Each structure stands twice: as structure tokens, then as C-alpha cells.
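Project standup — Tuesday

K.O.: blocked on the structure for the chain from last sprint. Re-posting the sequence here as requested.
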Amino acid sequence: MLKIPRLLVMMFLQYFVQGAWNMVIGAVLAAYGLKEIVGSTYSVLGLATIISPLFIGMIADRFIASQKVMGILHILNAIALFTIPTFVENGNVIGFLIIIFIVGLLYYPTTALANSISFRHIDGVRWFPIVRVFGTIGFMVVGLILGYTKFSTSINSFLLASGASVVFGIYCFTLPNTPPVAKGTKFSIRDVLCLDALSLFKNKYFTIFMLSTFVLMITKTAYSAYIPVYLPVLGLEPASMMQIAIAAEVLFMFLLSLLLSRFGFKKIILFGAICWVIRSLMLSQAAVSENYMFYILGTLLLQGICWDFFFTAGDIYVDKKAGPKIKAQAQGLRFIVSNGFGVFMAASICGMINNRVVTEKTLPAAAPQWQEFWIYPAVVAAVVAVGFWIFFKDKDVIMEKKQKA
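H.V.: unblocked you, prediction finished:
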């Protein structure tokens, strides 16, 4: 139990760092006249995520303790983040995309490692939602800081992220020791290609879940990439408004373990997908409504269900499906499918749609354009919800979970 407080701080800092740069990156680029590369930015981040997490997971599973790998990556990431403001100020698109690619290479594997470290030291179903909620609190705290300091549309957000990353990198070396579980076993090409984790796709229900996650990333990326761009069009400060969403996420994170035990993975994940449909439709309606705050507040309050029920429950599901020797690889695999291939595909599609549909920068001309834009992610989420409802029937995991409850 003494390990849990250290894991709570770990998760808090993990998402504090991410929130400082990733939460408002679209708003910062738009403020500096670079809105057209928002989609490209997320595509580059997705490409970086395809390359690094599986190999980092393999290193953590076999060669170096996970907390040490995390510490090194965060300190290197601090250096990369520190250089970004220069490229944004100068309008150097190529230089910016190269550095943001490096940031993706360094940062995103640490999210999977943070999950893996947590699952190694706690009972996942019982304690992981509580540990993970401190990541959400970290996201909330940095959002409040960004809103208060007006950094949400400023390159200073990257400097804040850089400083926090140094602090977190040092802290990582104090985390509970998480040695490689497969250390000393014979090395093979299977380790390099992470085929042990890829073997999870032999299970059809795991494949259905991962495919659902992959496709839903279109809806999720439309929200995460363009809500910071959309809110200022309505005259709203993005970082401060988004804290409503994060507060809702904290509430439902505490309820997730209980609800999983009561309803099982299928119903919880399905309801999360349905709520992505609802929130996208509400964002669409807000663009043309005189009472737009009603829809925006409703959209933000749905964050807890949209995120916790689909993505956090998915983290727990993947952990349940993976064997003890490939848990780090499995979390890296899920992250590559979602934040790697998924974001690369989704950002390309969302960027193309947004650049084609949203050509006006201010209301009222931009209102019908944003209304049309948000319809696309709503349709995608509806397709995912229907497909998951029909094809996902993984009763083995649900039965195992209920026996432990």
C-alpha cells in the first residue's frame, strides 16, 4: 500500500506534462497563424507513436527497469519541448513538425510505461481507476494554470511543459522498482518485432476491441485537436473551459471500478462509444444555437463517460488479456493502435475535413461550417457503437472479473 501514493504522484505528473503542451497545441498554432497544420501535427505525433512504444515496451520488459526508462525519456523530452517556441514564433513549419515528432517519440511510450508500472504493483480492476484519476487531476491543474496565466494560446505552454518534464524525469527514479520480467530469457527476433504482444490479436474479441478503438480515434482526435480551436471561435477560453470536462472525468474515474464489476466491459465500453456520438452532435448544434453554452457545458460534462468508459476501461481490458511477461508490450501495443496508427489516420482525415469545411475564422460565417464539421465524428462514433454492440461478446474476461470482485 505504501507504493500507491508514489504511483498517484507519478500519474499526476505524467498527465501534467502532457496537458501543458498537448491540451492547447491547436489553440497555440491557430493563434500564431498556423491552424492549417493542426491536422499535420497530430499525424506526425501518430507516426512517432507507431515507431517507439513497442520497442520501448520490449526494453522495459527485458532489459531495463521501467521507472528508469521513463526517467530518461522525460528528461530528453524536456530538451525537445524547450526548443519548440523558436520554431512557432518564426513560422518554421518543417522545424516545428520535426521537433514535435521527436516529442512524440519520447513522450508517448511513457504513458504505456506508467500504466504498466501501475498494473505491476496494484490490483488493476480495484486500484487502477483511482491511480489513473490523479492523471486527470494533473491535467486539470495544468489547465487551470494555463487559463490563469493566459498560456493556452502562447508558446509559454511549451516552456511550462519542459520544466515539468525535468521535474518528473528526476522523480521517476524514485518510483517503486519495476524490473524487467523477462530478463535473462533468450533474445530473439520475436522480441524486436514484439510478436508476443501481437499474438493477442489471435483472440477475436481483443481484435474487435482494438479495431473499435482504432476507428473511434477519428472522433476522439476531432475533439482533442479541434476543440481548442473551436472554443475561441465561440468566444470561450479553451484551457479554463476544458477543466469542466476534466472534473467530470475525475468523478467517473472513481466510479469506474464499481461500474465495471456491476455491468462488465461490454456495457461500459459500449456506453462510452454512444456518448461520443452524443457529444459530437452537441458540439455541432452549439455552433448555430443562441444558447450555445448549454450545449458546450453538456459536451464537456460528458468527458467522464466518453473517456473513462471507453479508454480507461480499455486499458484495464488489455491488462486482463495480456500474460504477465508481455504486459508492458501489451499496453504499448494498445497505445500504438490508438495513438499511433489511429491518430495518424484520424488526424489526416480530420485535418483534411476541417481545412475543407471550415474556411471562415469568425462567427457568424463560421457557424454552419463548424456545424457540418462535427457531424462527421458523430457518424463515425455511431458506426463504432453499433459494430461493438453486435460483435463483442468477451464473456470470459467478465466472468473472471466478477469472480475476483
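K.O.: great, moving the ticket to review. Confidence is low (pLDDT under 50) at residues 399-405. The domain at 3-177+196-404 is CATH 1.20.1250.20 (Growth Hormone; Chain: A;).
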